[in-house]
Amino acid sequence: MNATPLLRELQAAGVTLSATGDRLHVQAPAGIVTPALRQRIAENKAGLLTELHRPHDTTTDDTRADLLALADRLAVDRTHVHRLDDDGLALLAAVGGGGMRAFLLAAEDAATRQAGRVPLDDTAAIYCQHCGPVYVHPAIAAALPVVNGWPRALGCPWCFVRKVGGYIPRPRVACEGCRHFTPDTLNPPAGMGTCGAGKGMHYPMQHHGCGDYRPKGTDHD
Questions:
Q1: The sheet that has 193-195: what strands, in order across it?
Q2: Are both 150 and 82 inside the same structural domain?
């Protein structure tokens, strides 16, 4: 049985396997090796021993070691390195140090977004045609056309989070700039209005996070 997928899974979880003859040694942080996982290791012991005894490409091993060291220097989760297969390692070895750094930072950035958090350097607010108001790196915002005060984009780094139904932290917006907002004409002194996207009643200048915000002059949904 091919035990490579299980070996990769264990490495990604921070589990270190080693072999001495027909004995399999397991090292892992506390709580990682559950009874179910231990059973899987036992059931795949023969395949794991075969993989561990197989001669390894020293270039691949060196590349993984370089990536792990770089991940530590960048304070990036080592899991991104452990998930790489030999083909991925070979590709990164070919692109060199700059490519390795870019890969690790991009992987960490993507993981941060998947967790529903804004990467530390993403301090600029833009309007994405599909995601609405989102935070991005200032360099991205600076390259976009500005319409009605908003840097506009046809897509953004948060699109993959939206597609899987993930949480997107929002820049704060005010209803007075949204095309969904209709001021209350029956009781103007109250200073409120209704959201056409079904978000209830709001004060025009009250700032809040809203994924349905559509700047005035926006024709798409």
A1: 181-183, 193-195, 201-202
A2: no
